[in-house]
Amino acid sequence: MLNPVSDAAAEPPEAQVIRLDTLPDAMRKLRRMAEEIHATHFATFIIVQRGERRQLVPCLDAHYPGISERSKMMTALLGDRFAKRISGTARPLWWSKSEDQAVFADAHFAERIEVPAGSQSGLALPVAAEHGPEGTIVLTGERLVLNAAALCDIHARCFALFGVIARLGPPAGNSTPAISKRELECLMLTANGLTSDEIADKLGLSVHTANQYLTNTSRKLNAVNRVHAVAKALRLGMFD
Is 14 helix (H, G, I), strand (E, B) or coil? Predict the structure, then answer.
């Protein structure tokens, strides 16, 4: 069995996330955490109210800046009942296809639930942002490797990470429209200090077209101007 507390995990949760400035930073932290417990997939969901129903909306997974089909499928598989359950508890929820439950044997504070249809074994950690949304971070795999101490540590780290994701990410259910390759090129050149005339000359465009691309990008990022759009794109990790 893996050592439940890695060198990275030895840091207090606050210290681990205080340096996070972008969503890719958060994604890398989540991926490292998933690898520690042998999870093969991870996804962060925000809980949104749809009339009388609650829905899990995926907002960050290993396919950032996109969302994987697996995460979209999990939204449907887990459904309203699961979203309400997550919203009403602070206890980690777990499920397993195996009868060997040694991994969770000493984690009496965690609650076992029925395996969702079509799912691997998994762990759902309820999280919430201070004065913000609530949600869950779900990790799945054929065989998760952790004990009670590691589970407590990971849950605390997930709370801290979710606060960062909720602060930096787009509002749940209101994802940013797709930005074209050419629009992103114009924005990257703006970030490098080029004027509209210089961008047009470099890309072989008219100045009007270059300005239109920048206007489109600002609108899609809900930015007040191109400088604001550059700042938002940097925070979202859209530039290499």
Answer: helix
What value does the mean pLDDT take over residues 177-193?
86
Percent of the chain with pLDDT over 90: 31
Helices (H), the chain: 13-17, 23-36, 69-87, 148-168, 181-191, 196-203, 207-220, 226-235
Same domain, 51 and 83: yes
Classify 66 as helix, strand or coil: coil
Average pLDDT, the chain: 81
* Residue 163 is assigned to a structural domain of this protein: yes
Contact residues for 100 (Cβ-Cβ < 8 A; gap 6+): none
Token pair, residue 122, equals 């998994």
Within a 10 A sphere around the Cβ of 65, how many other Cβ atoms? 15
pTM of the entire predicted model? 0.64
- Nearest 5°: the CA angle 109, 49, 82 is 35
In degrees and rounded to multiples of 5, residue 58 shows phi and psi of: -65, 135
Partners of residue 93 on adjacent β-strands: 111, 124
Q: Which domain holds residue 195?
A: 181-235
Q: What is the pLDDT of residue 15?
A: 43
What pLDDT does 25 receive?
87
Task: Say how far residue 50 (Cα) sits from the centre of its chain.
Answer: 21
* Alpha-carbon span 88 to 126, nearest angstrom: 9
User: Coil, helix or strand for 203?
Assistant: helix
Is 199:182 a contact under the CB 8 Å cutoff? Answer: no
Q: What is the pLDDT of residues 48-78, one digit of tens each?
A: 887 778 888 888 888 887 788 888 888 877 8
Same domain, 162 and 230: no
